[in-house]
Amino acid sequence: MFNDMMRAEIWLQEKLETQQGIEDLAQRLGYSSSQIRRNFKRCFGLSPSAYRDQLRLERAVQLLGHTYFSIYEIASQCGYQNHSAFSRAFLRRYHISPREFRRSERQRLSLLRHDMTQEYPFRIDHAQRQHAVVTRLYQHGPKRESNIENLPEHETLQALPDKLRNGCPIVIIHGNHWGEGFSRADLGVQVDEGVTDELAIPLPFRTLSLPAYRYASVVTDNLGELGSIIDFLLAKALPQHDEFVSGLPPRLLWRKTKHRKSHKSPDSVELRLPLYGSD
Q1: Which domain range does residue 241 map to?
Q2: In the record, which residues are listed under signal peptide (predicted)?
């Protein structure tokens, strides 16, 4: 049952901008609407509708705080049919209006920029279209998982065929607290196009097509600094280069150096924050 409700949770996230309802989800998974509501709440503690509202506002927090999209655009991107409905929902959850939240977050970043002493080498680059085989992990809820630094050794990856396990580990971090662990994350490996056509992908893995994107990148061997690195990018590095994030979730890619013979954890991790715009 949990694998099906995981699929439901992912579907809700992927359909935030649409008005598709629980009946559409039930039809997709082959359940009745009442079964979806009952089983989903058993797994995630909320009804599907309440969970989707939470995801929408979670995304709104990122877009308000770190992009220059208008509040009207953000409301639409988060699945609200009008600005008023979005503002009411945001105020009800966070006890502050979207406009006031944006102002306070920009003030916070300005103070961070003024007081910042630690900087990190970074680059802005472009990634071509890629593919990944991933599964969804949860930090809270029915299947609490380990911290980010332990994910490349996660036992779930052992279910992948040998040909895939040798790929570059990737984690896509969902939720608001990018630098403080994760609430939801997609864990897996990057693969070449066509590789999965030859292999049986075990449940609960799925194949993702990752479109081309621009990103800001920092490489580190200390994930304990992840929060500081993200603050540096958001508060200082990106504004200095007239860049801002797209609102897509950050990605972590684990790298092995050529001289490393051990199959344990790779030497370094590359953080990628997707940026707005194209080359």
Answers
A1: 123-274
A2: none
User: pLDDT tens for residues 197-256?
Assistant: 888 899 899 999 999 999 999 999 988 899 899 999 999 999 999 999 999 999 999 986
SS3 116: coil
Q: Do 146 and 258 reside in the same domain of the chain? A: yes
Name the phi and psi angles at 16, rounded to 5: -60, -35
CB atoms within 10 A of CB 13: 18
CATH assignment of the domain containing 236: 3.20.80.10
Cβ-in-10-Å burial (0-12, 13-18, 19+) of 251 comes to buried
Residues 133-162, mean pLDDT to the nearest whole number: 77
Structural domain tally of the chain? 2
| 170 and 190 share one domain | yes
User: Is the separation of the CB atoms in 230 and 271 below 8 Å?
Assistant: yes
pTM exceeds 0.70: yes
Q: What's the CA gap between 9 and 189, in Å, rounded?
A: 21
CATH number of the domain to which 88 belongs = 1.10.10.60
- The alpha carbon dihedral of 89, 70, 236, 152 has a sign of positive
User: Measured between alpha carbons, how far is 233 from 87 in angstroms, rounded to an integer?
Assistant: 28
Residue 69, SS3?
coil
What is the full DSSP assignment across 228-278? Answer: HHHHHIIIIIHHHTT--B-SPPPEEEEE--TT----SS-SEEEEEEEBSS-
Burial class of residue 168, CB neighbours in 10 A (0-12, 13-18, 19+): middle
